[in-house]
Amino acid sequence: MATTIMNRLFNIPSLICQNAAQLLKNGANNAVKLDQPVRNNWTDWRMIKDNKRRKLLVQHAPDRLRMQAIKKNEILPAEIIEIGQKMLEQLPRDSGITRVRNRCAITSRPRGIVTRWRLSRIVWRSLADYNKLSGVQRAMW
Amino acid sequence: MATALQNTRMLLRRTLSVKKNEILARNICFTSTLKSKKDEGTLKKDDEAKEVAAKNAKQKEAKAKLNMLLEAMSKESQKAFPAESELALATPKFVKKNKPLKTKLISTKIDSEMLQAVENVSKTFSKENEELKKNLIAKLESITDESEVARLEPFKPDKQKTADLNSLLNTLKVDVKKPKKKAPESHLAAVKIDNVYGADPSGIFRNANFKEESGTVSKLTTWEILYQKELELLATQPPSNGFQQMILWTKQGKVWQFPIDNEQGLEEEAQVGFHEHVFLEPYLKPWCPRRGPVRHFMELITVGLSKNPYLTVAQKKEHINWFRNFFDAQRSILIETGAIPDVPSKSPPSLSA
């Protein structure tokens, strides 16, 4: 419980920036309740963080691409490259593609993912056995 | 609890007050001396007894009336109905009497006039038929006997007859009692509305001033959002089975069209020609220098973009424009390093001279 409270406290600045419009509205009660569990649609917190990273990735992808192009460059003068490097550092870390982890959509398992279905192998197997995956059949040859 | 008892007593008193008055009046009529006032309890008991007595008296009166009615009805029925009636009345068993034919038909019971009528009737039907005469006379005699017997004896209601008559009455649907209290007729019921929208407007609200909410009251935003969601859910029925779900998805365009087209959903992009994707040099022309590292860099960028099938033309333009802005911002540095020829130019934002 203490960890969740700390998480909420740490997340406050980013949350404020993102939800500034809602916060500044008249009559909106934005008090953070620290005695109740937070309810959401995700399996666990790691899944939530991964989701945030994906959103940031989508948001900053074009900027990141351009800055990377400047950085990973041998033609332009060094000063320009340096500037590009610094601009890239300014971007949030979670916008990097390497930070995104393909997790299971149901169990949030980080390993053993069947990419096409975005499921962990265990979940995939259980669904396949119950004939819920189209075109999936037990291998026999 | 005491109040409950008192309430019940009050109710009883009210219900019995009317009857009490009636009973009192009757007593006054028929008794010489008035009864003195008694205690409440005894009074109540007396009232109850009187009520019972009154009920009995009423029943007796009703019965007497009914009997009178039935008597009248029965007499009428005997006269009106034919001899062979539908009602299962008591019919006499006819016994043949072998009288001499020559003797004139004399009977003491029936009137002479009746006898004459019987003779005339028999003559009209058949001259020879003496039997007819005899039958008629016999029947008339039996009827007279019955009537005399009935007259002499006190009237005892024949259960069968009363039952028959009651059934008759029921079929006739005679309203004996009518409820005194009628439901208060509403004024709206009297108006017959044929055409609802045909009449002229009444103009009740013509001069009405409806006050609007003063300013914005502090709203509950989450509640508002949830309320709107609930309204949408109520309005739209979710699909109840797989078929309805598929139908909904087809209407929304989420379902693959057969034969399968890999570029389903990319119809707009299909209309854009490849030349717009590939030939991006015109976007460099206004600003990019013809030689130098910048050009080299931008050439690489354009080659990369031209080979990219996943971006739209707008996105590619956006990329190029960003680089343009970036290099414009770093103009001084570029000039220092020698990437751009340091020549003052008349034309505004252009790196090339």
From TrEMBL, chain A:
Superkingdom, taxonomy of origin: Eukaryota
InterPro entries per the UniProt record, alphabetical: Ribosomal_uS14
Record Pfam families: Ribosomal_S14
Gene Ontology CC: cytoplasm; ribonucleoprotein complex; ribosome
GO MF, one annotated term: structural constituent of ribosome
Ribosomal protein keyword on record: yes
Similarity comment: Belongs to the universal ribosomal protein uS14 family.
Name of this protein: 28S ribosomal protein S14, mitochondrial
Provenance organism: Daphnia pulex (Water flea)
